[in-house]
Amino acid sequence: MQVLLNTGSTIDEGRLAKGGNKYSEDYKKECAVCWMCAADYATLGSPEKVAVTSRDGKHTVAVYPKVTEVMRSGQVFIPRSIWANVVVEPDTFSTGSPRYKGSPVIIEPTDEEVLSAEEVVLKLYMGGE
User: Fold this and answer.
1) Architecture of domain 2-127 in CATH?
2) Measured between alpha carbons, how far is 47 from 13 in angstroms, rounded to an integer?
3) Contacts 24+ apart (CB under 8 A), 28-32
4) How many Å apart are CA 85 and CA 32, to the nearest integer?
5) Which residue of 9, 35, 51, 62 has the fewest CB atoms within a 10 Å radius of its CB?
């Protein structure tokens, strides 16, 4: 399913990140999630985990779905974190800041493991994706 990805801070993401807890299980529970509406979740078959893939198909990250009334169909949200950074479009349009809002991505059910922040970094920068 193609959707638009938005990212941004949440209160707990900020609290955990600023508190130096980016490698904690609490940080993973807060940030390794993809918020979506109930209708889109049902269309995907109500999976335990989803894969979010960048528009160019080069980068994918597994996260947990989070069904919430605040999302509209066709849009998802991942808190600002390493999981979101995997699939955010890198184009800066000469601003120095990537496109954190409105990036087209593909979401689909997955059996892939949801990695910790440390594992994502090691996979991306030490083992390649």
Assistant:
1) Beta Barrel (2.40)
2) 24
3) 28/114, 28/116, 28/117, 30/79, 31/78, 31/79, 31/80, 31/81, 31/82, 31/83, 31/84, 31/117, 32/63, 32/64, 32/81, 32/83, 32/114, 32/115, 32/117
4) 11
5) 9
H-run or E-run covering 115: none
Residues of the chain with pLDDT under 70: 91-98, 128-129
Q: Report the sign of the C-alpha dihedral through residues 61, 14, 10, 29, in that order.
A: positive
Two tokens at 95? 């601003």
Of 103, 117, 118, residue with least CA distance to 7:
103
Both tokens assigned to 5: 């990805």
Provide the 3-class DSSP secondary structure of residue 120. Answer: helix
3-state SS class at 74 = coil
Q: Which residues pair with 109 in a beta bridge?
A: 50
Q: Where are the domains positioned within the chain?
A: 2-127
